[in-house]
């Protein structure tokens, strides 16, 4: 009762007299007269009603306003949905990721020392020194500070905290030798790397023909001079600072003990595995820290440009799969509708899998048809509403600028609005011509019918 809105409408009372009304013969007025006096009488006030054109203009403005608020509500819904996605995405983070990446940077890059500093590598010799003395020694676990042998740490790197998943791989990408264009002192040129001038032939140790291989080499050394495609390696294209590199290449796998790694890397150094045709060296490995249940993808990239110089880059990407395990399991069950194929096979070894396969095909077909229909319908609506959307967007922009005070309605714009209202009062005579013809025919028919009636 305290929040009840008053029945008095001041704006309406300026034009209407509540005491001046007409009743039908079967109606009675049940309320008392307000401000009733014998010496006063209701003064009739003339109401300035809108004409038909002004009503039409006001209706269009109101429809635009309704559509504007509808778009604002829809935009607000999308904005809330986007905020929820960002909250879920950024909230699903591992608090130990920064500490893990910081530890691996200090562990592998060796930035404290002047020698074998990875970010300072600029020559091929410095590259080999870091690979042989720093990377290889840190990728194999070694005795403790008191010379005790680590127990139950097989497969761990030398920090005793991270375990290697699989093994580390060093992949090289090379370019072909081409004849230099024009008259030059040097006849053979090696250009920058591209997918078109990549070397994909297999060689023997020392980059000689396979048929002229001499001496005895291990399988790791022989495999480092043979080309492997991206399909064989199950690898992907990698983008560096100075180029994009294919997933194939010449691969050396870090297998065996620390002494085997040191011997093989020294042999590759002697055979000139990295030379003037080398354009990229990719060292990739995956680590797992069981203490924080965190995976880390480690990638070192050494880019060799034709203009000389080595440009090292690195990436440490922490990944947490365990938080997504329950979600992935739930999505898999939803996709498969939690069918037990074992019971179907036990029921009938042929009809069970056949019925399940047909059901899945029909489900996918229905879903695809539904999605395509929705997309086509949305494109059709967007094409039809393109002009209306442009008009409503200009209307919204004008309202927003006026509401914020950034733009005031000028005299020209006000006159343009009055002109648009005035244009509604006029019409093209050609458009009204069919109506005039219809009226003329109606008059002729009436006159003819009257003459026939008198006759």
TrEMBL record:
Membrane disposition: Multi-pass membrane protein
Entry-linked InterPro entries: Polycystin (IPR051223), Polycystin_dom (IPR046791)
UniProt-listed GO biological process terms: detection of mechanical stimulus
Keyword Transferase among UniProt keywords: no
Coiled coil: none
Transmembrane segments: 71-91, 350-375
Major location category of this protein: membrane
Superkingdom assignment: Eukaryota
Keyword Membrane: yes
Annotated ranges, domain Polycystin: 118-320
Localization annotation: Membrane
Gene Ontology terms for molecular function: calcium channel activity
One Pfam family cited in the UniProt record for this chain: Polycystin_dom
UniProt keyword terms in alphabetical order: Membrane, Transmembrane, Transmembrane helix
GO CC annotation: membrane
Entry's family note: Belongs to the polycystin family.
Protein name (database record): Polycystin domain-containing protein
Organism of this sequence: Adineta ricciae (Rotifer)
